[in-house]
Specification:
Order of helices and strands: HHHEEEEEHEEEEEEHEEEEEE
Number of strands: 17
Largest sheet: 17 strands, mixed
Structural class: alpha+beta
Distance between the termini: 126 Å
Number of helices: 5
Strand content: 35-45%
Length: 361
């Protein structure tokens, strides 16, 4: 009898052991399954992607991501015509194959203004005449797309590290302008490099662009967001950041990081090479030097340009601009070399412009 009970106990013990092993095996499978789908690195990447998708884009960024000008491909750009108050406008487009075209766009295709109240320009004292030549035929709309490259000698058809788009437009009232720039990384770099958005708004005066507000926003963090408000009446520049507000004296003719590049449409280079520019954190004085005329290779073909360089002191970043001679000094190549030697270069891949049409007498 004892042997029978002992045998039965051993059988049940084996059964309990087998059940424990089966339970342990199933538990390990469950844990391994969970770990397999939620590895720390992948989970971190998932949170980065979700964070990027959750960042609210400013309304101004939408205009640059969804351009309203339809590209057309035809033979050479239309020659510039005198700037008058037009009822219609001609559009010229340079596409990657080098073709250009001109056509009349539909009403309000650039900016929908049917519900916008007309804004009167502020009554500010106009700058004194300086003898500079203001181009009366400057474009009223410029849209440029760029490849972003990080190699100094990268080939034109090399895979870019990102994309960029800049849009300049003169509002229908002919008195206000708006500039938007959006730079976005591509591929894996986009997981770690947030978008860089810049905007500039202001008025068009006898001296060219006169900014009123500038925004610099790198990702969604407040400590990477800066803005500047130009108070021309009191001659004060208000600099806004996460650390507070700072006011500095506003120099006549001061520009921001965006407006100064398109100011060359109105005041050609070499007429004013000493510029006061703000980046939203400070207002600095910069001297640009003329490096000569250069022909640069782009996906649109070869472009004749003027090469300007901001002389950099040791330990400071260097900025270079290539302005298209045949397109009223619009920037088609921008290069920034940081203190550590890292290079960021924007090279134009397409260019769309709109110019006023002379009304019949």
């Amino acid at each position: 009898m004892w042997n029978s009970w002992q045998h039965l106990w051993q059988v049940k013990a084996y059964q309990r052991l087998a059940l424990a092993l089966l339970f342990s095996f199933l538990l390990h499978l469950l844990l391994l399954g969970e770990l397999g789908f939620n590895l720390p690195v992948l989970n971190q990447d998932r949170h980065l992607i979700e964070a990027r998708l959750a960042v609210a884009r400013p309304v101004s960024a939408k205009a640059i991501v969804e351009p309203v000008v339809k590209r057309v491909r035809t033979p050479k750009p239309v020659p510039p015509k005198p700037m008058l108050e037009p009822k219609a406008a001609a559009v010229e487009t340079i596409s990657p194959d080098g073709a250009a075209s001109g056509h009349a766009p539909i009403d309000n295709q650039i900016v929908q203004t049917s519900n916008e109240p007309s804004v009167e320009p502020p009554q500010v004292e106009q700058p004194e005449e300086t003898g500079r030549t203001i181009n009366p035929n400057a474009y009223k709309y410029v849209e440029t797309e760029f490849d972003v490259r990080t190699e100094f000698d990268a080939k034109v058809d090399a895979s870019p590290a990102g994309k960029a788009k800049m849009v300049y437009q003169l509002r229908p009232n002919g008195e206000q302008y708006q500039l938007t720039s959006l730079i976005q990384a591509k591929g894996l770099l986009a997981l770690f490099m947030p978008d860089l958005l810049q905007t500039s708004e202001g008025f068009l005066t006898k001296a060219g662009l006169r900014p009123e507000h500038y925004l610099y926003q790198f990702g969604g963090k407040k400590n990477k967001t800066f803005s500047a408000d130009f108070d021309w009446e009191s001659k004060k520049l208000r600099l806004n950041s996460a650390s507070g507000v700072n006011k500095v004296a506003l120099v006549e003719g001061a520009q921001d990081l965006l407006s100064f590049m398109y100011q060359f449409m109105f005041v050609p280079p070499l007429e004013n090479m000493h510029l006061s520019i703000t980046n939203g954190k400070k207002l600095g004085n910069y001297d640009y030097g003329f490096e000569g005329e250069e022909t640069i290779a782009t996906k649109m073909g070869n472009l004749s340009t003027i090469h300007l360089v901001r002389s950099a002191v040791e330990g400071e970043e260097k900025t270079e601009l290539w302005l298209a001679l045949d397109y009223r000094y619009v920037p088609v190549k921008i290069r920034k070399t940081e203190k550590e030697g890292k290079v960021y270069e924007l090279l134009a891949t397409s260019l769309t412009t709109e110019q006023p049409v002379t009304q019949p007498e």
